[in-house]
From TrEMBL:
Origin organism lineage: Bacteria, Pseudomonadati, Pseudomonadota, Alphaproteobacteria, Rhodobacterales
Occurrences of domain HTH tetR-type (ranges): 12-72
Top-level division of the source organism's lineage: Bacteria
The keyword DNA-binding belongs to this UniProt entry's keyword annotation: yes
Pfam families: TetR_C_3, TetR_N
Gene Ontology MF terms: DNA-binding transcription factor activity; transcription cis-regulatory region binding
Segments passing through the bilayer: none
Keyword DNA-binding on entry: yes
Protein name: TetR family transcriptional regulator
Residues annotated to bind DNA: 35-54
Record-level GO BP terms: negative regulation of DNA-templated transcription
Alphabetized InterPro entries for the sequence: Homeodomain-like_sf (IPR009057), HTH-type_TetR-like_transc_reg (IPR050109), HTH_TetR (IPR001647), Tet_transcr_reg_TetR-rel_C_sf (IPR036271), Tscrpt_reg_YcdC_C (IPR013573)
Keyword list, A-Z: DNA-binding
Signal sequence range: none
Length: 204
């Protein structure tokens, strides 16, 4: 899309439609299985019209991942070093679970990219994500050292939270099949609160 002037309302609308369509197609088929034609059809645009905004499938995917990673980091950014440690950790778990409920396609897109070796976002993982995890792991370690949380490995703790919350989005079909008519998000918040509260509450 030309950058010599601010985009019009229609251009903004079309770009948003393309990215939303791409999210649906990529989260369903992965990068390799998705095509520009599929994305254009999902967006209700012609292929030439889509290519006016994004020159390639790679460009669309990169734009999506950039926006996704920034959104995905928000719950961890909100972990407050000045807050009450146990409640901060439990609130983080709930924020991550809520993201899985609200943004399942985004979660699956992120997971697909990681499973493939993160070829289009390895730099971001090595910089933005790594820096944030290092920072918050140090905060968590400080809480543990002060006796405010039960000691454990802070990075593995973060990984476990990602695994237990994003599972509901990444394995949605399996979860809903096994849960039957029960909405998995009805009991999940209380279960995870109890799980991590027992794990992290200091003993003695």
């Amino acid at each position: 899309m030309p950058k010599d002037r601010s985009p019009t309302r229609i251009q903004k609308k079309n770009r948003a439609a393309i990215l939303d369509a791409a999210l649906e197609v990529f989260s369903t088929h992965g990068f390799r299985g998705a095509t520009v034609d599929q994305i254009a059809g999902e967006a209700g645009l012609s292929k030439p019209n889509l290519l006016y905004y994004f020159p390639s499938k790679e460009a669309i995917f990169t734009a999506l991942l950039s926006e996704l990673l920034d959104t995905w980091l928000d719950p961890l950014r909100e972990l407050d070093p000045e807050g009450e440690p146990l409640e901060e950790m439990l609130a983080y778990v709930q924020r991550k679970l809520q993201m899985s409920q609200d943004f399942p396609r985004e979660s699956r897109l992120f997971a697909n990219e990681i499973v493939q070796g993160a070829p289009r976002m390895l730099e971001a993982l090595s910089t933005d994500l790594k820096q944030l995890v290092e920072e918050k792991a140090a905060v968590i370690q400080g809480w543990m050292d002060a006796g405010k949380l039960q000691p454990s490995h802070p990075k593995h703790l973060i990984f476990s939270i990602w695994s237990l919350t994003q599972h509901y989005a990444d394995f949605d079909v399996q979860v809903r099949t096994l849960m039957g008519e029960e909405d998995p998000f009805e009991a999940a918040p209380a279960f995870l609160d109890t799980f991590y509260r027992r794990m992290l509450t200091p003993t003695g």
